Every structure is written in structure tokens, then in C-alpha cells.
Amino acid sequence: MTYRIGTDIGGTCTDSAVMDEDGRVVIGKDLTTYPDFSEGIFNSLRTATEKMDLTLEELLQDTELFLHATSVGENALFEREGAETGLLTTKGFEETLHATRGGYGRWSGLPFEEVKDIVNSDKPDPLIPRERVAGISERAYREQIVEPLDEQEVVEAVDSLVDDGVEAMAGCFLWSFTAPEHEQRVKDVLQERYPDLYVSMSNDISPTMGEYERTATTVLNAYLGPTTEQYLESLGTTLEDYGFDGLILLMFAHGGLVTRRDAIEKPVGLIESGPVGGLLGSRFVAGERDIENVISTDMGGTTFKVGIINDGRLEYADEPMVGRYHYQFPKRDINSIAVAGGSIISLEEGTNVPSVGPESAGSDPGPVCYGRGGEQPTVTDVDMIQGYFAPEYFLGGDKEMNPAKAHDVFEEQIADPLGKSPVEAAADIYELINSIVADLLREMTVEKGIDPRKFTLVSIGGAAGMHAASYARMLDIPEVLVPYTASVNSALGLLSTDVTHEHLDVRQVKPPFEADRINGIFADLESEARDKLTAEGFDPEEMTIERSISMRYQRQVHELVTPIETSGELDQSDVDETIDRFETLYEKRYGEGSAFKEGGIEMTEFRVRGVGPMSMPEFNEHELTDSSVDDAIVGEKEMYFKQAGGIIDGNVYDFTDLTPGDVIDEPGVILTPVTTIVVNPGDVARMDRYQNVYIDIEGDDQ
């Protein structure tokens, strides 16, 4: 028997999904370990091997693919533990990184409450100090070199920076995305003079327009590079020690897998790769029922994330941001807020207005009810007080809980100051949590012209199952899907993903849009994509090439990525159809009647996405049965449901005793080994052939 493993490191838990050659999936989960993330990976895999009657060594020796999404980059950024980094840039433009976007940089990425406080807002601390930015005499304009590179200045600047302790070097010159010669030469000089220095050049990392964003992306990549390289090399060595001799692939946030070498060279692509894996996992499980309209909501321990799949399509993020730093690297569109299981509940001093997050208890010390030293109430503690946990079944009974401590802390810090009982206060906070989430969903759908009533909400993440049906009801979403792999869905997404590389050509093309010119641009990009995939062992006949063009109206700033839906060479009608598609997308984004072709359209970026398919076994299906759902009831306990008017006795169902075809039409909770699913009064839950749970919010048994 051979296996494939998907692992995802989250802020609170590290998740694993192990698939065998027959399509059976075994899930594993354990707490994320800081600072040695690999310990959490192997702990989560051990929880899977215990169900498989294997040792960890036996599993890894028979594993052909180890697929990984990691937050090691984000952690290094937020903890300010990246490499000491220097920057070489065009002389006269040394302030670009620190100027950010001018005044907008003072509040970009801040919560709304802080944006309002303009006086006390400020730009984020720069990743590198001003004294580590060196201006170099050189200049290009569009595709022309107008001032030669002063190599002696390069050598002197680099020597000085290395003497100052720099471990990584970023280089970003003006117009290098169309005239890369100077950056390429600087890279050669650095590698010859300091072969151990980590080097990032903007024409390699982010050959795009936008001086600040391109600089920030390149600096961010260099800052994260050495840490990422050390982590991935160490992980590979440890896997080999366990007997693994298969292929390691990493998830990029553009939604595809890449080699370990690619991840080391472009670690900026790893940022938020786990959430994107979750989005892909949602698309995969929904696709088993031919569902193409999906709202994927992921509530873990530290953040709530949402992504939209519209007619089977995933959009790219317009302006990716991490830690208040804008960057330009292909990334699927996922929005997040700091509302999750570990989010701390507090009261505003003087007013007692409750708030949720943004601070999180994470996995250490974690929520109060975990009994690991937490002293501040969290969302998880609220769910506990609502009655949605059965402590004896927490994480399959492998972890203990301390409900009494959670109750006491919540009563002292929240309920008593509000003048309410703990259950009443918890019910109010629970509704507040769901309202905050519903507002984000409304922003991602209704405010963009998307009708959520025509979508299925996929609930993933360890905490989402306790809230999904409630916030779905607030937007009249008719159906919630909770996958069998709900709390490890990012790991599942890795198993359903292909090797992918994105290639860009940035240039401004104005009318007339001639098919021959556009075909010429794409021909070079496609050749690059095919060469890359061929070198990685893919058959040219099996490769898939996807093409798109970013377009905008002239004198506007923001572009829309517009897919080309025909293959092969384009004729003039194909080009015209793509332009019409841009205008359709524009009106969907900005409102009917907003498109104005007479204002002039220009193309700004040509993108080729080369895909090397990874064969994947089909999920193991189960037969639908007529067994009694009562066989899965393991108890009854008090639970609070607003729809029922307060506390009622709800059923507690053991997920492992449910069988495909079972229907639950009574309020209660379904306890799985890795998450809890709340079934509200009036809702109907069903288990399908893949052991996914579907909840009909209307309660219409059809």
C-alpha cells in the first residue's frame, strides 16, 4: 500500500490528511508547536497512524508524495525573526520602501476602529532600516537602458552591507520588469562575491508594475528566504531519517504545488498557502456533488477566512497584504478577520461594550477550557458555555478540558460586569460572533453583486461547525456542507492540487489590440511554462496551459484579471470576446452601467498558468444505509438555542457511529474526532456517501 500525505500548519493546530491508493482518507490533528513546527507535523501524523495500525516510520517509508502548506514565513514576519536584509535600488529612490503609499500607508491593513483614529495611526515598521538601503547609479525606462550600471558602486555597497551583518539581499531597480539586465548583472556579482548570501531580485520575484509593491515584495521575499530555506531543508532531513524517499511539494497561494527549490527561492508565495489549500479542498468536496457555487468559510483557532468559488472559478486577490505590507505575487482571493476559536472576548473599559479579538490565545496557552494556562475567555469558551462541547469527547477523547474553569473566568470577566448569567451573556456573545462573520460574508457577496442564496456554504476549520449554520441563516444561504475532513480541509486541498507555475509579462498594450501581437507575447510565456514543467518530468501532452490578460480603463489604477476561454492561437474574434468579457466582469465588480469602452481600454499584464496534473485516486465511497440514527446518540445535555427560546435538552451524536444516509432532524451536536457540528432547531442534517454532513437550513426534507 502506498500513501500521499497532506500537512498544513495553522496558528493553533497542525493538520494532516493521509490518502491511500484506494482513496481512503485518514485524518490527523495536533497542536502547532513553536518554534519547531516539524514537531507538530509528526505529532499530527502519529494521531493518523494510530488509526491505521502503522508506525510513523512505516507510513513515511511507503509515502510517495509529501505535500505541505506552512505558515513558517508569516510567523517569521510577525515575530520579526526574518533575516537581516539589505536593499539595492536605483539611486534617488532609496525612500520608496519607507514612503509606502504615502498617507494611505498610515492606515492600510488596520482594523476599522484604528483607521478612524488618524492622529494616532502610523505606517508599519519597515522590514529593513533606512541605513541598509543603498542607491546604485543606473537607470532604465520601459525597455531601454538610459544609464549604465556602476558595478563598482554595487561592490562597495554590498561589502558595506555584509560587514553590517546583512544575511539576505534584495534588489529592485526602476523598470526592471521590462529591462532586467542590470538586476541580472547585480545578481551575478553577488553570487560570485558572496555565494552564501541569500539574493532576491525583483525581476525574478515580482516582474510587475508598482514601484512600492514590487520593492516590498522583493524585500519580503529576501527577509523570509533564509528562515524558509533552513526550515525546509531541516524538514527534508527529518523525513529522510524516518525513511521517506518520495517527493516533497509545497503549496503556493496561487493555488498550485511547487518544488522545494521553488519554495526556497520564492518563499513569498507560501504566504497564506494554508487558507488557499482550504479553499481548494472546499472546491473538491463540493465538486463531488457538482456544486460550482461555493462560499468557503474557515474558522480555526486564530482567524476566520472566506473565499468565493463562482461557477467553479477562483479569483485572484487584487492587493495581497500581509502584516500591513502590500506585495505583488499571484494569490487567490481570501479575506480574513481575527475572529476564531482562540479569539479573546473582552469588554471595553468604561462602556462594557463586548468585542471579539483581534488578540488570540492561540494554542499556547489556548482557551481557558483547554486547561493549558489560559486566563482570558475566548470564542471556544463561549461555545463551551452554550453547551456545544462534550468534554469527554474532545478531540476523540484524547485531550482533557476544564469546563468549570472556563465558566468561572467567563462569569467573572464578562457575565458579571454585564449583569447577566453566564449562559445569557454567552448567548449574546455567540450572536455577536456570528454577526461579525455574516458582515464579512455580506461584503464578499452581496456588496459585489453575488447572491448568497444561490450558493452552498462549505464549513471548514475546527471551530466553524459550531457557528456555520447560524451565520448561514443570517444571509439566507440554504445549505451548509461540513466535510468529513472539515478541520483538516487545507491538508485535503493539498491532495487535490496540481503542480502549477505562473509566468507574467508586464507591458502596456493599447488599441488596436492585434491578435498577432498578443499571440507573440503568449507564445514566449507558454514556451517558458512548458519548459519548466518538462524539466519537472511532466508529459507535454498532459500539461494544461491557462491564459489571462489584466485589463483596465485608461487612467485607472486597478486592473481586472480576464481569462481567455479559448485554446491555441487567438484570432481577432477571440480577442474581441476577451475584451467583452472584461467589460462584463467590470460591471459585475463595480455595478451595471459602469463599463465605458469609449473611455479606452488597455492591457497591462499577460499571464500564463502552466499546470502539471497530479493523478489522484477517487474518494472512497460508502453505501447509503437505512440504519437508525438513534444508534449514534451517546447522550443528552443542556444546550442553548435562540430559536428554541433558551436552554433545551439536545442530543449528542457520535460521528463515528453515524452511517451514510442517516438524517438528523432534532437539535443537538455531532461530535467528530476533530470538530463539533451544531444542528439548530428546524435544521436537517444528512450524511452523504463520503461521510460529509449536509445541513438544510430551511429544514425542508427533499
Please supply descriptive tags for the structure shown above.
alpha+beta, single chain, six-stranded mixed beta sheet, 31% helix, Rossmann fold, Nucleotidyltransferase, domain 5, 702 residues
Account of the protein in words:
With 702 residues, the chain is of the alpha+beta class. Among the domains are: 115 residues, 2-Layer Sandwich (Nucleotidyltransferase, domain 5); 142 residues, Rossmann fold, CATH 3.40.50; 88 residues, no CATH class; 114 residues, Dna Ligase, domain 1 (2-Layer Sandwich). The chain contains 18 helices and 33 strands. The strands form eight sheets. Strands 13, 14, 15, 18, 21, 22, 29, 32 and 33 form a nine-stranded mixed beta sheet that branches. A six-stranded mixed beta sheet has the order 3-2-1-4-11-12. Strand 24 and strand 25 form a beta hairpin. Helix 12 packs across helix 14 and helix 14 packs across helix 15. The longest helix is centred in the N-terminal third of the chain and has 31 residues. The chain is globular and about 80 Å long. The two termini are 40 Å apart. The model has no long low-confidence stretch (mean pLDDT 88).
